[in-house]
Write a structure and sequence with these properties.
The chain has 237 residues and is of the alpha+beta class. The protein has five helices and ten strands; from the N terminus they run H-H-H-E-E-E-E-E-H-E-E-E-E-H-E. It is 29% helix and 32% strand.
């Protein structure tokens, strides 16, 4: 009799345990499905109520709705060549994409300070000239009419060449602050990115309070967050 009771009890445990495992498997599957949904495929009402997600073009670049750092989310380029922190108030402006290169332009407006940021990034892969800092810095300097030197910031996986300049445009009472340079991958040859960030007063206001140190800190945060995703090519073609 005791043996029969023991067998029945064992069968009951097996059945309930199996159900529990099935439920866990279902939950795990559902979680994976949830994680796989990209912001671009979600209802805007369910996304963070910030320009980076509420703008249709911008959210195509956003990896997830997880806030990586206060005010920043993760962006991935169309070629999946790089990822970086993207400001929550950032918004797509324009882009150009080929098989090996990609340009991305975006803007942001801080309504509290009336400061506008205009940013441009150009990503290169399998281009031999990106390995030559002298050539790249000549290119960047020419595009930005810059004649000064660059600071070299060495990170574990990349070298960041950084410079800044102040520009006084005829139609602006306050100066604009520009941060420019390029990033070269240390882990992969023929891989890098040129960049420029410009901060200026909004055209809708006559004056605004400038904060160059804050601008530089913001730009360096974004640059240091850049990670390159592509595999190394040896020929540079």
């Amino acid at each position: 009799m005791k043996k029969i009771i023991f067998i029945c009890f064992s069968l009951l445990l097996a059945l309930t345990g199996g159900c529990s495992m099935n439920d866990n498997d279902k939950n795990s599957t559902n979680d994976n499905k949830t994680e796989a949904i990209k912001p671009k495929d979600m209802d805007p009402k369910d996304l963070p109520q910030v320009p980076a997600f509420q703008d249709e073009k911008t959210r195509e670049y956003m990896v997830s709705t997880k806030e990586e750092e206060p005010g920043y989310y993760l962006l991935e380029s169309k070629l999946k060549g790089f990822r970086m922190l993207f400001p929550e108030d950032g918004e797509y402006s324009d882009s150009e994409t080929s098989k090996t290169n990609e340009s991305l332009f975006f803007d942001s407006i801080n309504n509290k300070t009336n400061i506008v940021m205009n940013a441009s990034l150009k990503f290169y892969q399998n281009e031999s000239f990106i390995n030559n800092p002298e050539t790249m810095l000549d290119i960047v300097s020419g595009k930005n009419e810059y004649k000064g030197k660059f600071e070299k910031i060495e990170a574990k996986d990349k070298d960041i060449y950084f410079a800044s300049k102040q520009e006084n445009f005829d139609n602006q009472e306050s100066p604009s602050y520009i941060y420019l340079g390029y990033i070269k991958s240390k882990k992969q040859d023929y891989l890098g990115m040129e960049y420029s960030f410009m901060f200026s007063c909004s055209a809708n206001v006559q004056t605004c309070k400038q904060n160059p140190k804050g601008y530089e800190k913001k730009v360096k945060k974004i640059l240091n967050s850049v990670t390159f995703n592509l595999e190394e090519r040896e020929d540079g073609k």
